[in-house]
Amino acid sequence: MIKEHVPMKLPGMKKVWLTLAVSWFIGCVLWLIYSFTTDSFQAKLGVQIYCLAVGILSPAAFCAYGWDKWKAEREGHRISEKKLHLLAFAGGWPGAVAGQQWFRHKTLKPVFRTILVLTVLLHVAVVATLCFR
């Protein structure tokens, strides 16, 4: 008797991804607000630009995932995977992760998931490097 291969899923990974994405987004927005409203806080321009990109592109990416899922169910004109990845790479990865999990969109495509995970890891690594130098 041959058993069918069932991929192993880590328990609670959806919660971990959503928590990371939402926390990152909220942190960036709070950092941006604090840097603009406090005279004593001097955030570097690069940090402000990054936080602004996350604050704008995350909701855009979330909406793009929702729109693409809606169009996929109705066989309409889709958003290309390349554009979804570009949104995530440009700073909208928290919205992309949240949108992917919320709408259950592109969750079964291993290559797509891998590219998104690598994008997240790249952002976390770059920000951690800049913060702890």
Structure characterization notes:
There is one protein chain. With 133 residues, this protein is mostly helical. 75% of the residues lie in helices and 0% in strands. It has one domain. The longest helix is centred in the middle third of the chain and has 30 residues.
How do the SSEs run, as a string of H and E? Answer: HHHH
Uncertain regions: pLDDT < 50 for 5+ in a row?
A: none
The end-to-end distance, rounded to whole angstroms, is 57 Å
Q: What overall form do the CA principal axes indicate?
A: elongated
The average pLDDT is 85
Radius of gyration over all CA atoms, rounded: 17 Å
Proportion of helical residues: over 70%
Strand content: under 5%
Please describe the structure with a list of short key phrases separated by commas or semicolons:
133 residues; mainly alpha; elongated
Describe this structure in a few short sentences:
This protein is mainly alpha-helical and 133 residues long. It contains four helices and no strands. It has one domain.
